């Protein structure tokens, strides 16, 4: 019954998406120009020439967080070698450099909600097997503080999570975690300040989390302080294994 409700919900979302496409035509994830009819028919969300401006995460990358490494002799990035983690493994789609930085800014602040569809498609192409192997039971987006989300009108991590949920047929639970602290933007802080900034910033909406294998999704991974804080609370509430998938990640060297 629950699976049927899950599918019906996304059938409704798909109808709404089709309606919105008539009002807000799809734009290229990289250059933000309108897509050609041929691209839309082939379900491409980026121009062929623009794709060359993206830097997909490829090996070698950190065995733990998935950040790109300088050479194949190194197994873990500097950050993961230094810190204990509540995350089992992490993966990401693109290196946070070049054109994708502007794309992510538009995704977060310029109402480019449909970029989530492109990111979900990329996640399926790159990391579907990894997600299936981990036997993910639920997708949990990193939450925004409620006042900020109301002001912006959406949570970009939740959009990414829902789009991925639809493709993977795994439930997305955007309200499983709540941000109870209005934190400063992480980009303004250094490593230690980021850890303190998100300390006690999250809590579970349920006393006991019934899902044992959870995938956290977010837009950008830098030091990992935010996802670590979310993962810690999930494990305290009963999750056994917590994984992370982000749209972009910084280099681990």
From TrEMBL:
InterPro entries: ComF/GntX_DNA_util-trans, DZR_2, PRTase-like, PRTase_dom. Residues 20-81 form the Double zinc ribbon domain. Keywords: Glycosyltransferase, Transferase. Pfam families: DZR_2 (PF18912), Pribosyltran (PF00156). The keyword Glycosyltransferase applies. Residues 160-247 form the Phosphoribosyltransferase domain. GO terms for molecular function: glycosyltransferase activity. This is Putative amidophosphoribosyltransferase. It comes from Roseburia faecis.
């Amino acid at each position: 019954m629950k699976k049927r409700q899950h599918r019906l919900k996304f059938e409704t979302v798909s109808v709404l998406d089709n309606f919105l496409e008539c009002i807000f035509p799809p734009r290229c994830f990289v250059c933000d120009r309108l897509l050609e009819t041929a691209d839309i028919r082939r379900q491409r969300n980026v121009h062929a020439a623009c794709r060359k401006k993206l830097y997909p995460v490829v090996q070698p990358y950190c065995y733990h967080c998935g950040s790109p490494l300088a050479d194949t002799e190194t197994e873990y990035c500097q950050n993961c070698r230094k810190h204990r983690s509540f995350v089992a493994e992490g993966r990401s789609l693109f290196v946070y450099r070049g054109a994708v930085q502007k794309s992510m800014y538009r995704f977060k602040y310029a109402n480019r909600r449909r970029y989530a569809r492109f990111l979900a498609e990329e996640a399926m192409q790159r990391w579907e097997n990894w997600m299936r192997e981990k036997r993910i039971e639920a997708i949990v987006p990193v939450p925004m503080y409620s006042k900020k989300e109301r002001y912006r009108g959406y949570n970009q991590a939740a959009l990414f999570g829902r789009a991925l949920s639809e493709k993977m047929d795994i439930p997305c639970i955007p309200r499983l975690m709540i941000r109870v602290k209005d934190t400063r933007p992480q980009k303004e802080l250094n490593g230690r300040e980021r850890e303190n900034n998100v300390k006690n910033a999250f809590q579970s909406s349920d006393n006991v989390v019934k899902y044992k294998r959870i995938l956290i999704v977010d837009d950008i991974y830098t030091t990992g302080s935010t996802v670590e804080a979310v993962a810690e609370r999930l494990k305290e509430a009963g999750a056994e294994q917590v994984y992370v998938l982000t749209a972009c990640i910084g280099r681990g060297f």
